[in-house]
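Form P-L/3: holo structure prediction, ligand zinc ion.
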Amino acid sequence: MKALVSHGPNQPFSLEAVDDPKPEKGEAVAKVLACGAGLTVQHVKAGRTPIPFPRIMGHEIAAEIVELNGDCGGLSIGMPVTAYFYLTCGHCKWCLINRQTLCENFGGYVGRACDGGYAEYIKLPAKNFVPIPETLDIYKNPAEIGVICDAIATPYKVLRRGRIAPLERVAVFGAGGGLGIQMLKMVRWANCHVTAVEVDTNKFQACLEHGADICVDANTNDAHEALLDASGGGFDVVIDFVSSTKSLEMGVASLGRGGRLITLGGGGGAGSEFKLNGMSLLSKEIEVMGSRYCSYQEVLESLQLVGEQAQKGLMPLVTRTSGFEGLEDIHNDVEHSRITGRAALVL
Ligand SMILES: [Zn+2]
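OUTPUT (holo model):
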């Protein structure tokens, strides 16, 4: 098969003919129709997340099952599928209560610990393939449906984890990024008042088009006042995709009574410490929580949700696609934040 092989950090993709993957017992192989090309993959390509090389990257697939080996749950040949990003054990306490992102025997990520979707075929443990409901047509919208497993499922989990309710005032920090735009759409769908917070004012228009009521430039001196104005005195929820020391402290400071801060970003680095005032936490009953990706069940529910609500604008926004040859350019643009919404490889 043809595949984009990565031979090391900061190396261009190499389009190569490699052996077709053969499934072991409990594994399945799927033919890839599309695979999302986002910042999660770019972090690896740019060497910010170390992995073993050579590697075929990519995890947000729309694909069709072509081969099975042994017990593969409910999968069958010809079934349209997407992928669950985390390689988990399936039997620890956390897997059993459907919080797979906390798996005690975590085996790494699709496209990092094992080969991913930048290829004509992908082999995964059968439990990592998620069936796509009939309400979605992967042959018509392969790129959009491929990215649901992350672009919609991650925000979907945030709505739940943050107990976000209609009419609440919600801010999204890093709103113009790949996941931020989808988060705006989801918060709008949840019938909240939405404030987009961005440092790149060129992205304000896209934020307004995809659900934001107000945009705030986080780089100005009066950003704090602007946030308090936008929230009428303090947000119910701040969702932070930037997660730097500055953004986290700005986020907490802009919360109102009963406010919740949810941090998802990796861009702040492992050492992005921030200060909290204990008395303010107590007096306003503020909650601070982390949110990692989503559960398998949340991927399933996200697919169902988009299938049922696609007319209401929940289909992910994909603004750039290419075949194997154009993916290097796309990743270059992902690196420099030049893509609104999402991009994808389409085969
Ligand atoms: Zn587990």
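COMMENT: The CA atoms of residues 160 and 298 lie 10 Å apart.
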